[in-house]
Write a structure and sequence with these properties.
5 helices, Chitinase A, domain 3, 7-stranded antiparallel beta sheet
Length: 289
């Protein structure tokens, strides 16, 4: 969880030990860059004192605002090359509000677009102001993965290239999966998802919570039961679920619902071991009433 007003950092003693281990393999994802001591001449320095350089161009034109949620991968170093924190090393992207991190990180994020990777040289005045570790100028490599609270452009209705099943479920594959098997109704699956109403309001997201959800395919709303069975592991698909295949007007959210679902894992369990639901399941992955 991201603490208020600070970038997520590990306990410094533990982080320093982790950094030493991570940097033993030259060229690894947490290896300090050669320009960690100071911004290079081709870096852009902003009036605030933040210096920045694009490492990889993004795939969108949308920038996060201060009130947006972002999903990012990042690694942070001190100017001596010691790594103090890394979502890359932990193997799990961080999700947090743009306005709830240190000032330099927040400013840098608002310059980015999804898919972009950028290096930030953050002066102490825009970091922890010398009041805590890590002190001094900090250097971050940041990749903006997504803005999970942002509704897709086609949230109001399925686009022309979406497919529609006989039941009225519409869907569009966003990312191809791997493997040749689909889940069955009795399969247990693990997914990441975000759901919006057609006015663009996000009402539920495992991505924002930072924890995938696991459930039995036939233990969720009908649109999910049908849609998930169309997917392969690793696939990400957008679904437009009509109200009759969602909560049928009996409870919120009402109307057509739009979900981005990523099928992470299909668990093939003996029928006797099959749970009726996953502990803590909420939102669309709840049992039908």
């Amino acid at each position: 969880m991201i603490p208020m007003r600070m970038l997520p950092v590990l306990v410094f003693i533990l982080a320093t030990a982790a950094a030493a281990g991570a940097q033993t393999s030259a060229g690894g994802p947490t290896q300090a860059p050669p320009d960690v001591a100071a911004p290079p001449t081709d870096a852009v320095k902003l009036p605030s004192g933040l210096a920045t350089k694009v490492l990889k161009a993004g795939t969108s034109k949308d920038h996060p605002g201060k009130d947006d949620l972002v999903a990012v991968d990042y690694t942070g170093w001190k100017t001596d090359g010691s790594m103090f924190d890394s979502s890359v090393a932990r193997g799990k992207p961080a999700v947090f509000p743009v306005n709830r991190v240190i000032a330099g990180f927040s400013e840098g994020l608002q310059l980015m677009v999804p898919g972009e990777k950028r290096r930030l040289w953050i002066p102490e005045s825009l970091a922890y102001k010398g009041t805590r570790e890590p002190k001094g100028m900090l250097v971050f490599d940041v990749q903006l993965i997504d803005m999970p609270n942002r509704a897709p452009a086609d949230v109001k209705a399925p686009p022309a290239d979406a497919k529609t099943t006989a039941s009225g479920l519409a869907y569009k594959v966003l990312q191809q999966g791997t493997g040749g098997r689909h889940p069955k109704p009795s399969s247990q699956v693990t997914v990441h998802y975000t759901g919006w109403t057609t006015d663009g309001k996000m009402f539920d997201s495992s991505v924002v919570r930072g924890q995938p959800t696991t459930f039995t395919v036939d233990g969720v709303i009908p649109g999910w039961t049908e849609g998930v069975q169309l997917m392969f592991e690793g696939e990400k698909t957008r679904f437009w679920i009509p109200e009759k295949l969602a909560y049928q007007g009996k409870s919120a959210p009402y109307g057509l619902l739009v979900f981005d679902i990523e099928l992470i894992k299909i668990h093939y369990l003996p029928s006797r071991a099959r749970p009726s639901r996953s502990p803590g399941t909420t939102g669309p992955a709840r049992l039908r009433t």
